[in-house]
Each structure stands twice: as C-alpha cells, then as structure tokens.
Automatic annotation (TrEMBL):
Highest taxon listed in the record's lineage: Bacteria
N-terminal signal peptide: 1-37
Alphabetic keyword roster: Membrane, Signal, Transmembrane, Transmembrane helix
Protein name: CYTH domain-containing protein
Origin species: Adhaeribacter soli
Length: 315
C-alpha cells in the first residue's frame, strides 16, 4: 500500500501551455497512425491500451447519497429497455499521482498515477498513464504490477520506477519522452482516496456503459467532494461498437445533468483534485483564524497573570 505523500501546489497557466499540449497529442496521434499502418505489429510489452469516453459532473456532497439512490432505482431492471440489465459494484480506491517540480504533467493535462483498488474481490494495483485525445476522450496505458522486487542491476528505489517491471520501464520512458518528460524526475505529489459506487449497464450480458458516484477525500487541508461519472471503456479495436456506446453516454449525461441541475467538470481529475486541495473553504479559513486568535489571547492572558502574581508575592 503506497505511503502518504502530501504537497501544496498551485494550478497556474504558463505561456505556450496549449502549444505543448497540442504537440504532445500530435505525437501520440502519429504514433497510433504508424502502428496501424505497420500491421501486424505487437504492442510494446507490459501495458494494455484503453480508450474511454466520459462525462464528469460535480455533485454537492450533502446531496450525493440521495442522488445515487435515485439513479440506482431509475436504472434498475424493471425500468431498462429489452436486452439490458444492471448491477452495482463498490470499491475503495487510493490514487498516488506523480509529477515533476515544473508540474509538466499537470500543465500538459496528462495524468500518471499508481492506483490501488480494494473491494470484496480483493486488492489489485495498476500504474496508469492517461493522455487526452479529444473532448471527453482519453487514452489510458495500463502497466502490469511489479509483484517481485528487482534485484541486482535492475534494482531501484525510485518511487515511480520500482512500481514497474524492469523490462517495462523503457515503454513508459518512450511514452513520456513524446511529451518531453523524464521518468527519473517524477515524484509522488498527491494522494487521494475515494469511495466508488459504479452501476454497470449491460447489453446482452456485456458491459455497455457505467455510471459512478465517486466520493473523494484529501488531507492537508482536509477536503471532501463528490463527482458523478458516466463512462465507457473500450480497446481501440472496438471503434464501431464504441459509437453506439458514446450515443448512450451522451443521452444518459444529458438526462442526469437536467435531472440534478449539474455543471460539467472539464479539467482532468488530477487538475481538479490539485485545485480543490489548495482551495480552503471560507468557513475553514475563518475557523483557523479564530482558533489562532483565541490561542494568542489565551497565551497573553496567561503570561500577564503570571507577571501580576509574581509582583503580588514580592509585596
């Protein structure tokens, strides 16, 4: 289980940010095109690639439980079209995000995280590198877990590289180099836990789309918030099927947005989490200020009392 690493970072734009994002996406597009043109060609070892299409909406924390219950009932078996079924799975997730001192991943809207899943089925760990392709569409490279400690020349205590098998590290290096990022410079910058309830809509027994309530928790400062997520995951080979799934996701998102009067979240999870972690609520700030003032007044009163008492004893 990953250790807790905590930092305070600010989300800020820099000149040329969008140019770097565009250049990075262009390199990934060209790489994908070249890999298709040269078929048959084996994928780089150590990871799988998935394409997700997703809507994310911020949900007021006090309303989250009631909203989820309404969604669960709305998309249960009696209310679904013919051929569709649904089921719900719950799990706890711990994410450890990596970045460098210049916040290169944050600025290019990329995400690199170690994700620990804990559910009734057990535990599993994944290293995920997420690259935005287009609006609401993200390409995710999922690396296999390094189950055995490396020995000899392959040993490393680097917090990121030790999570990868030695033979898979060049694959991650190759992906990061396209965005002018060095794996050696990446360190843990943010740890987030969240409780996820995910409702799977299945068509003819196969996963079609999913709706999730994700309740996030961060520390220093302590912050809690909830998101509603509507998503489809597919491997790139299933593009034809994904068009139908995208239509379903669009329809569900429009319906739920209207039902709960939701505002879409357009930044990446990493950017949103970093920003939320840095923004203390006014009530929290006032509480800290009041506590500090009370402490100072109490200390001043204590020293004044001691001084007066000593003078009294002398007389």
């Amino acid at each position: 289980m990953p250790q807790s690493y905590k930092t305070n970072r600010r989300v800020s734009g820099v000149p040329g940010r969008w140019f770097r994002v565009a250049a990075c996406l262009l390199l990934f597009t060209l790489s994908a095109y070249n890999s298709q043109a040269a078929k048959p060609k084996k994928a780089l070892p150590g990871y799988q690639v998935f394409t997700s299409y997703e809507y994310r909406f911020r949900l007021p924390q006090p309303e989250a439980a009631a909203a989820w219950e309404k969604i669960r009932l709305r998309y249960s078996a009696p209310n679904l079209p013919s051929g569709f079924t649904s089921d719900v799975k719950e799990q706890n997730i711990i994410d450890l995000y990596f970045d460098d001192e210049k916040q290169a991943l944050l600025e290019q809207e990329l995400m690199l995280r170690h994700r620990l899943f804990i559910s009734g089925e057990g535990r599993k760990e994944r290293l995920q590198f997420l690259v935005p392709e287009a609006e609401r569409t993200t390409q995710t490279f999922i690396f296999r877990q390094n189950r055995k400690p490396d020995k000899g020349a392959n040993f490393t205590d680097h917090p990121l590289l030790k999570l990868l098998r030695a033979k898979d590290r060049p694959a991650l290096d190759s992906l990061l180099r396209k965005c002018d990022i060095s794996a050696q410079n990446l360190q843990p910058v943010l740890e987030v836990t969240h409780r996820e309830k995910r409702l799977y809509l299945r068509r003819q027994g196969n996963e079609w789309v999913s709706i999730a309530l994700a309740q996030y928790s961060t520390e220093a400062p302590e912050h809690h918030f909830a998101e509603l997520q509507i998503r489809v995951n597919q491997q790139p080979a299933n593009k034809a099927q994904m068009q139908g799934q995208k239509f379903t996701v669009d329809t569900l998102a429009a319906s739920l947005q209207k039902l709960f009067n939701l505002q879409p979240e357009t930044s990446t999870e990493y950017a949103a989490l970093t920003k939320n972690r840095e923004q203390e609520s006014p009530s929290f700030t006032r509480t800290k200020a009041l506590a500090g003032t009370t402490l100072l007044v109490g200390m001043a009163a204590y020293f004044i009392f001691r001084k007066l008492r000593k003078k009294k004893e002398k007389h």
